[in-house]
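User: Show me an example of a complex going from sequences to structure tokens.

Assistant: Sure. Here are the input components:
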Amino acid sequence: MVIILKENAPAVEVQALEQYLEAFDLQIKETVGEHMSILGLIGDTTAVDIDTLLTFPCVEDVRRIQEPYKAVNKKFHPEPTVVEVAPGIKIGGGNFQVIAGPCSVETEEQIIEVAEDVKKSGATMLRGGAFKPRTSPYSFQGLRANGLELLEEAKKATGMPIVTEIMSAAHLPLFKNVDVIQVGARNMQNFELLKALGKQEKPILLKRGLANTIEEWLMSAEYIMSEGNPNIILCERGIRTFETATRNTLDLSAIPVLKEKTHLPVIVDPSHATGVRQYVEPLAIAAAAIGADGLIIEVHNDPQKALCDGAQSLTPEQFDNTMKKIKKMRNFVTTELN
Amino acid sequence: MVIILKENAPAVEVQALEQYLEAFDLQIKETVGEHMSILGLIGDTTAVDIDTLLTFPCVEDVRRIQEPYKAVNKKFHPEPTVVEVAPGIKIGGGNFQVIAGPCSVETEEQIIEVAEDVKKSGATMLRGGAFKPRTSPYSFQGLRANGLELLEEAKKATGMPIVTEIMSAAHLPLFKNVDVIQVGARNMQNFELLKALGKQEKPILLKRGLANTIEEWLMSAEYIMSEGNPNIILCERGIRTFETATRNTLDLSAIPVLKEKTHLPVIVDPSHATGVRQYVEPLAIAAAAIGADGLIIEVHNDPQKALCDGAQSLTPEQFDNTMKKIKKMRNFVTTELN
Amino acid sequence: MVIILKENAPAVEVQALEQYLEAFDLQIKETVGEHMSILGLIGDTTAVDIDTLLTFPCVEDVRRIQEPYKAVNKKFHPEPTVVEVAPGIKIGGGNFQVIAGPCSVETEEQIIEVAEDVKKSGATMLRGGAFKPRTSPYSFQGLRANGLELLEEAKKATGMPIVTEIMSAAHLPLFKNVDVIQVGARNMQNFELLKALGKQEKPILLKRGLANTIEEWLMSAEYIMSEGNPNIILCERGIRTFETATRNTLDLSAIPVLKEKTHLPVIVDPSHATGVRQYVEPLAIAAAAIGADGLIIEVHNDPQKALCDGAQSLTPEQFDNTMKKIKKMRNFVTTELN
Amino acid sequence: MVIILKENAPAVEVQALEQYLEAFDLQIKETVGEHMSILGLIGDTTAVDIDTLLTFPCVEDVRRIQEPYKAVNKKFHPEPTVVEVAPGIKIGGGNFQVIAGPCSVETEEQIIEVAEDVKKSGATMLRGGAFKPRTSPYSFQGLRANGLELLEEAKKATGMPIVTEIMSAAHLPLFKNVDVIQVGARNMQNFELLKALGKQEKPILLKRGLANTIEEWLMSAEYIMSEGNPNIILCERGIRTFETATRNTLDLSAIPVLKEKTHLPVIVDPSHATGVRQYVEPLAIAAAAIGADGLIIEVHNDPQKALCDGAQSLTPEQFDNTMKKIKKMRNFVTTELN
């Protein structure tokens, strides 16, 4: 951390600041110049609050040098995290998985039919919303506990591990047969939920918030990991921009950025990112090309009857075609490109 | 709601769409043109899902005409809502209140001292964070339950009603002596929390999300109100933009927009909006000038020792000066300007 | 400027960097720590390119400390700039002016009628677009040279100085009778135009770009001023955000920020910021309350027949009412509030 | 175009609106409902101004149905545009080209050396900035006319067509030996420049603005094409978002969106989009995977001595490696994937 002092700051004010800093276990190095002086703080500055430093009258500005995250930081854990969702179904460290299924669980028939379809096409995990975050209280809110039971039926029928979203830590007991617990974009900074998920062991699929930076996203992962749960899968799902041709803007640059900064696996959700069926395949392929560890794709057996997000769902046939291309691309990238 | 049909859509496809729409209690009016046909849906279209309509092959686009909110809509409830926080302390409908206090409750001494100071200057409610949403798990997370107890002490000592943030519905029992429950920006779309708050009676201070539109904000208020709680105070606290000179960009246009669209009172938080002490006063004054129903301002007796956000806190002396100007401005606006 | 070196950067790499820096007239102060070393560069670092520094393998990060603008910087020119637009019509340094008129000049009758109307209400300068930047090539592009002539007629008829937008330096000869040359938001970083305007003497009204920071805006003013023209009036006209209830989001925080950072006057355009007639007055009043040096407001004698932006234009009657309030507010702020 | 009328709008007001609309050559279809009436306008509504319609008191809202662009619209010109930059060097319609070279032209030696290097690696066009748009007037502004001469030398030496940015229509005579004229992001809505470029015949490389939508971008292309020049290459170069790990956020979704909406070729600039050398290759590969018609990549023989943007430039060796992968990916996509 670097503290830039104001030009001609009185010595007494700088001493007050240095006195304050003594409470932390840090080395302080002062550089005095004609027009500018700086204090370099060396050591673990995680506990030093920038806002407090800025209240000292002698302080012009403060810059944090080190990343504020530790547990999820690749610098300190260079080996990639491999999350084993179920026996033999791993993600990260060279393991690539496709999660597929409907936006919402609707009926037993629907979820089992879709599960069988996507399994046949090569998906290895089943997604399906039981608790649905909707902007409007008048929109379908999901089958809730009942939806979780239907997911379990589909799991029994197909053997596929299930991935579904949680909206409150109070619901955790209902998730005992869920394999991967999803935290949605709107809950990325629901810190109480993150802490609760850090205290249990199931893998977490942590979606990026709609207007959050990669650093904020990693800090949310840090909340989970610092409570004891290292099984975190990041999911890029598009950020809010001024563009209206797609629902959000998929930030594929986030993949190489995350590969550099963290050991956690990262997957891509082209369905929610675009909100438009015909753009799902090209972005899924690009995500595979750029080195994502997996994909999560919406598939519905009857999109016109879907209770939510039908416009972005692939039919099982479309998904089957897309999966063929994803597999070809993944194979090309891992065996021929590099 | 208006459905725009594709040019030359086959009659059979349009019939399929019309059949689907029969399930809703709506009048359908078709306008057929040479290059474009449209269906006008007349009636309550709240239950019609745009995404589903978009999956029909004959549909080019769908436009919602009516606002998707009802309970909070001024069209249906033209009288302004007046929230009575405590006997005689009303907000909305011409009643203006200033809430003040520290970012975080830290010690009994601190919170009582600040409470007495801000009361003397004219604040009528005390704010103070007990549960603190922080980007980093390593930052001070608030005194939590203990902080609520200290707020209650300050309430006893000064008689001021207290306003403090909730982060999980599970904590509701701890809030029984709190007067106004705040929902922070990051929880504006924590729908499970909103529903729980709608089922109880305490007034809610609902902050706008960091990257949310006014319509999304009103939909979150609708979540609370549709569950039965009409005591909602909206709080504009700045939105995320590319500007870096202030922490967020205070959207003062939101005040006249909300005055037109909703009957709910709206207050302004210039402290979190700017993040910079010297900008708090000018924006507080501008908020009073434009017709906000109140303000929420951070005040700390010793900003350099504040455990969070010291850089934006006013000292009691600064707050006293600012309050004098706010009162003058409020008085000018209500008695002379209009 | 502070250069943060990589942990364990080899001495030879750091020497290469220091050798490179020798070319600049700077003092270099090194602070060596266990896990981090920094170089503080003291002196005028305007010519040092951050991108180049980042190419040195030993460099982790570079932070600029000083503002990159000089001529427009209040630190070096603490006295407020007063722009004298015409004899006795000054803006800045306590002088407040309202510019009003139609979006576009349409006919001689229209522009003269509006000019007379707004003059009667207290506006001291006439605005009117002759060259119109329009998103679509099929929208009305303005009367161009002919529009400038009509503005001159209105100036003759009323004695009001005229303010109008330039879209290309090639048009400068046509602007010889214009009093204030406006640079629109889309041309804020048209650097060739800025340079040309810096080489002539007429005052410039420099609008903020749609997605630009205050610092970028000041750098554009620096382009003009560093070429020799100090007569610059900044104009906040709203920035692009996700909000759709208003066309842009007026950033009123920019006023106190600019008052701190620059000596240039700053005015507010509530018409383009909101795009909605009924929000123009409340934001105009708030701008006067927060200390803007003036306003620019669209007024049209027949908004339904306006060739552009009729929806945000006030009628002369509305403008007259709004002006009464603006004057009251300005009077209150300067004589009673402070 | 659909006009939504206000509930209970008086018949006389609606007649006034209909009278106004008679001036346009349109069919008007009215749909009258209990709570809502709409007017559907059928025909070419390009000339109808939405803002003017909104000034009619009976109008609640107006929605444009058809895209506002015609010449660049794929609906009316389904065949892909192929731009022939030089004999045998085509872009679009299945032709893929890589443009490479330094950010700025610096010396004859530099530009010729880089040109030879990138040609050897397979680039078919040379880029190099002569006129440089820089945020600061104190940054290197390019060699200007002299830089164009050096580019011509490199063209003579290598036979590569040259691509370089124009900043003012006044400079057009200097560009007579340039093969592709680039319009930078900051000039995307410099409409006078676009018109001038539409009146000449050289191909235009039109970069997307920093905060512009795809529709606005296509409208800028429409400016050029409607003046007579159909040789336009679009270039996605990242948009401004809140993310700071990359300079901008590359919007790869724009590629499939544009492939659907326009017949114009579109290339990708991963260098300016990321601003970080190590992210250039993965995004270049993803762009090739998603179907871009080409790439523009910054290469410098000595990035540490680059006068601008060194941090994002590849060395010739890095570029050579990246080109091998781009070619493999392009080959895989065109021969095996689809």
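The lines above are the inputs; the final block is the predicted structure for all four components together. The domain at 2-63 of chain A is CATH 3.30.70.1140 (Alpha-Beta Plaits).
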